[in-house]
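Aim 2, interim progress: modelling of the AR6-bound target.
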Amino acid sequence: MKITLVRGDITGQEVDAVVNAANSSLLGGGGVDGAIHRRGGPEILDACRRLRAAHYGGGLPTGQAVATPAGRLPARWVIHTVGPVHSAAEDRSALLASCYRESLRTADELGVSSIAFPAVSAGIYGWPVDDAARIAVTTVASTPTTVEDVRFVLFTEEAYTAFEQALKALGG
Ligand code: AR6
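Predicted structure of the complex, ligand included:
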């Protein structure tokens, strides 16, 4: 597996699957979730609504992932995952790692060979970006998968630098 870092907007990535940092309602929100729904158009929300009705009436649990078509995005799939809100009182890093593992498992089921991840939980959900980057990179690098091309697409300079450091620490 090849891991690369990209600075920019994930909605422009030409990959098989784009990962969305969603919330458990699956009905959209701000941040990267808002950007994906805006650029991808209503097909994504329609698919999310159907998934909710069929399987996730109580919401998609934190740490899990589910796929929909990607609408007008230059990708085939959006894999929606729900990151944990950061807590100073409780260690929720296993849930954040689960987002990356479950997204890759979903990608494997779909036969995806290229995937773009944002820095899940590192925005509105308040995760310190250095820690979010370390968890993202170590989890992806240690998860068995048939995905060949993994890109982390970082919206801010700060996030890009954090992921660079995390990859370096991994020896990559
Ligand atoms: N492309 C790539 N990264 C982006 C983009 C983009 N277009 N826009 C923002 N980011 P966030 P969370 C970065 O807040 O913390 C939503 O309302 C951003 O700079 O999108 O998991 C959902 O509905 C940050 O580094 O996701 C949930 O309610 C990273 O993406 C909640 O926010 C994640 O920030 C999820 O919060």
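The domain at 2-169 is CATH 3.40.220.10 (Leucine Aminopeptidase, subunit E; domain 1). The helical segments are 31-40, 42-54, 93-110, 129-142, 157-170.
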